[in-house]
Amino acid sequence: MDGGKLYSIGDLARRTGLTVKVIRFYSDSGIVPPTARNPAGYRLYDLGAVARFDLVRTLRGLGVDLATIKKVVDREISLPEVAAAHAEALSVQIRTLSLRRAVLTAVAKRGSSLEEMDLMHRLARLSEDERTRLIGEFLDSAFGGVDADARFAGIRRSMTPELPDDPGPEQVEAWVELAELSQDPDFRAGVRNLAERYAAEHPGLNPDPAAVVRDQAGPALAAGIDPDSPGAETVVLSVMARCARVSGRPDDVDLRRRVLTLLEAVNDPRRERYLRLLAVINGWAAPESPAPAFAWFIEALRLRIPA
């Protein structure tokens, strides 16, 4: 056993893999002072010092700063505390690097300009709180004052994107496009107008006529029925009978015009694009497009409303 043996700097360098210069620096910094000095004044170190140098080398390799290392060596703070703090710091760095990688991959894929790349990076690196505020402000503008109804509260939740901590390039790209879309004044006005229409019709047009149209016009479209044919007349009568029944109003020109206006607002391609981007960001299955069924029924209904 060599428990009482003292080691020179050269011996220490060979045992620890540190250079003589680095050992002297750590000694001069007071991180691992020498145990003793020989008659010639040269520094000597015991096995405890060897162990501390090994610890210092390990912590430095993990990116721990010298001031923190000294506190660990001096037992001012515990090693588990330091490990926990640096693990969290590394997690943040990993998320940051993952986000940068995703942005660069998306830029390469899109062939973006410098201005677009700058915008993508700024939007993508928003904190979770900042993203929440940005989308929250959009949803407030769309549903504020009408979302006391449980239907709108649910719709609001379903329209909230949640970018993961480690997003893929396609999720970053989708988030940037969705963020830009949410700030489009025309899109905001359209979503607001649609929400107000639904609120004004409640409970008159509940259940949602759009859902009724999707369920009945979809099969007619798939069957190749022309919007101007007798077969389409049957679908229009069925949908309008449902709307008339739940609204307590007759299937007249006024009701048909109201349903037509509502469906035209629902069929805004920007709304569908928002929902598709939302699915990408949140990792949901891509929604089936209702646009063809809506377009078919809108044409069929318009043909049956007197000028």
Q: Provide the low-confidence segments as ranges.
A: none
Query: What is the overall pLDDT average?
Result: 85
Rg value: 34 Å
Helix content: 55-70%
Q: What is the element string, with H for helices and E for strands?
A: HHEEHHHHHHHHHHHHH
Strand count, sense and barrel status of the largest sheet are:
2 strands, antiparallel
Q: Give the total of domains.
A: 2
Give the count of helical stretches: 15
Structural class: mainly alpha
- Report how far the terminal alpha carbons are from each other: 106 Å
Q: Report the count of strand segments.
A: 2
Q: Can you tell me the overall shape?
A: rod-shaped
* Lateral strand order in the biggest sheet: 1-2
Percentage beta strand: under 5%
TL;DR?
The chain has 15 helices and two strands. The protein is mainly alpha-helical. It has two domains: 9-74, Multidrug-efflux Transporter Regulator, Chain: A, Domain 2, CATH 1.10.1660; 130-307, no CATH class.
Question: Any descriptors?
Answer:
rod-shaped; 2 domains; 307 residues; two-stranded antiparallel sheet; Multidrug-efflux Transporter Regulator, Chain: A, Domain 2; mainly alpha
